[in-house]
Amino acid sequence: MAEQQDVLTSIRDSTSEGFVASTLFSQGWNVLFRALDYESLKAHIGTQDSQNATLLISVDSEGLTQSGITELRESVKTLILLHTTPENKSDFPEAIPLPETALGLIALMRGSIRSPMIRTQGTHSVTRSAKIIAIGGISGGLGCTTLAVNLSIELAALEKRTLLVDAHAYAPSIFRLLGQRGLNAPQEFSKVSQYLWASEITQENVVSEIERLDWASNEFDFIVLDLGVI
Fold first, then answer.
1. Which homologous superfamily does the CATH classification assign to the domain defined by 6-119?
2. Could you give the count of Cα atoms lying within 13 Å of 153 in the half-sphere of its Cβ?
């Protein structure tokens, strides 16, 4: 089951804010407060316990400063600093781009949840054995899917346990090239050959597939991600 997370947001652009809020709501996360600016966010945190919350805040939030970010980091579990355009991150070089797709935002959020959990496990660390190869392009028709499939087949021919993942969440297509069906079966990856397995990420299974990929990183030699247009 996916971790349920408390979230605060402060994103100035209304379109971006609506996208973030709707994506988080759709995944069952608790959006506790949607601040209009830094001052309203600070006032809310001052009256509510937010130590277990993740904060998504854009660098163009009115009134935000570097000292304000430092103060906010001490008040929440995780702070994710975002920018919606490269121009508005000049004063905040640590800011990362706001994901443009729901899949990207969900992956970002789940990463923010897992990282603190891993750090609190003391001397027990997670061993990653798989080498991850991500293939994508700036537009369609560049042959990314063909490259991902052929590379996976070649790795399998070298007797490397390989998982090929179709991450075209809106239009998966690898199953047609492989002549397979049911790549997103709930219990196991689809076995294509002795050393090759395949899976696809769709809008319906994105959360469960991200969880399975975390497990798969310890089970395969290579994970090849066909990202499509990025």
1. Response regulator (3.40.50.2300)
2. 9
Q: Tokens 């293939």 identify what position?
A: 135
Q: What is the pLDDT of residue 40?
A: 93
3-state secondary structure (DSSP) of residue 136:
strand
Give the separation between CA 158 and CA 166, rounded to whole angstroms.
21
Q: Which helix (H) or strand (E) holds 71?
A: helix 66-73
For 111-124, how does the pLDDT look when each residue is reduced to its tens digit (9 = 90+)? Answer: 565 444 333 333 33
Residue 119's pLDDT is 34
pLDDT 10s digits, 183-217? 555 556 777 777 888 888 777 777 677 777 777 88
131-229: in CATH 3.40.50.300:
yes
pLDDT at 83: 85
Q: Where would I find the beta strands (DSSP E) of the chain?
A: 6-10, 30-35, 53-58, 78-83, 96-97, 131-137, 162-166, 190-193, 196-200, 222-229
pLDDT exceeds 80 at position 106: no
